[in-house]
Design a protein that fits this description.
Layout: H1 5-11, H2 22-32, E1 40-47, E2 59-63, E3 74-77, H3 80-89, E4 93-95, H4 97-104, E5 112-115, H5 120-123, H6 127-130, H7 148-156, E6 159-163, E7 169-176, H8 181-197, E8 208-215, E9 221-223, H9 266-287
Parallel strand pairs: 3-4, 3-5
Antiparallel strand pairs: 1-7, 1-8, 2-6, 8-9
């Protein structure tokens, strides 16, 4: 994908074969965030797990110490007293069948959806709308619960969900480029600690194979995650070798296209990537 002049200038500030200490990586992230809006800071972690095995698939939530730097819009599917509790906790949209009908028609102007167990019979039918956007309520991450008041408060405070994709990569937002460096570093550290805590007992060898920080419009910056979560005696990834994925593929930058999943052709993967690439180019051109 072709990049503009502004991107190339920021790219030139990054040593591509170096894994930076976390504090240096955060400082460089702030330096390379040059768009005319407050860019989102993302963290991408390639893990040494086999996601073909259910027990090695990671999924969970954590509350970032300093939040995400944005207002989180919450929709709650509830009735009666639980609906009133959700409204009192600050939920932006509260409803039952009426809210479900609105979503079924394609409305999804919210960041998080929460539902009571009693409403899942109705909400379960919305999977085709909410599922592809990662907004489907799930008891494993605390968004299907009777304690809607706590769920709304946690979501508003910056509670975020993480999960491994088909290439064993976790993609997370950890704040804004406008955050003070210590706050970004705290959020980064909280994510690393949570991922290490959630390490599957069956995972062997190098656990965090690569860590990359990037902003909405900036280049990827490799971070030295040390030996966090490694099994005893595991070799550390060398700073000049990049990192290898579960199938041995090198993953140096989240902007690089991921390899096609099993059963997917390279042409299918390219077609899936094309719209996102075009959108990024358009946004970059607008902010150059």
């Amino acid at each position: 994908m072709a990049h503009g002049k502004r991107y190339r200038q920021q790219y030139g500030k990054v040593q591509r074969n170096r894994a930076y200490p976390p504090a240096e990586a955060v400082a460089l992230i702030k330096e390379t965030a040059s768009a005319n809006f407050d860019e989102t800071v993302e963290l991408h972690l390639l893990l040494g797990v086999n996601v073909r095995h259910a027990e090695e698939q990671l999924r969970g939530t954590l509350a970032l110490p300093h939040g995400l730097g944005k207002d989180v819009t919450v929709a709650v599917f509830a009735q009666g007293q639980q609906a009133r509790d959700a409204e009192a906790a600050g939920a932006d949209f509260v409803g039952a069948d009426d809210l479900a009908e609105k979503v079924e028609e394609g409305w999804t102007d919210f960041d998080v959806a929460i539902a009571t167990p009693q409403m899942m019979g109705t909400v379960g039918k919305l999977g085709r709308v909410l599922g592809p956007q990662g907004k489907m309520p799930n008891p494993k991450v605390g968004t299907v619960t009777d304690d809607v008041e706590k769920a709304v408060s946690d979501s508003k405070a910056g509670k975020v969900e993480y999960r491994t994709d088909r290439q064993a990569i976790i993609h997370m937002t950890i704040g804004k480029a406008g955050f003070d460096a210590p706050k970004l570093l705290d959020n980064y550290t909280a994510v690393i600690e949570e991922i290490v805590r959630a390490k599957p007992s069956s995972a062997k060898g190098k656990y965090i194979r690569s860590a990359t920080l990037t902003t909405s419009m900036g280049p990827g910056i490799k971070v030295d995650a040390g030996k966090a979560g490694d099994s005893p005696g595991s070799p550390a990834a060398g700073p000049d070798t990049g990192a290898e994925g579960p199938a041995g593929q090198a993953v140096l930058d989240p902007s690089a296209p991921a390899p096609p999943a099993e059963g997917e052709s390279g042409e299918d993967a390219e077609a899936a990537e094309a719209p996102a690439a075009e959108g990024g180019d358009a946004e970059e051109a607008a902010t150059a």
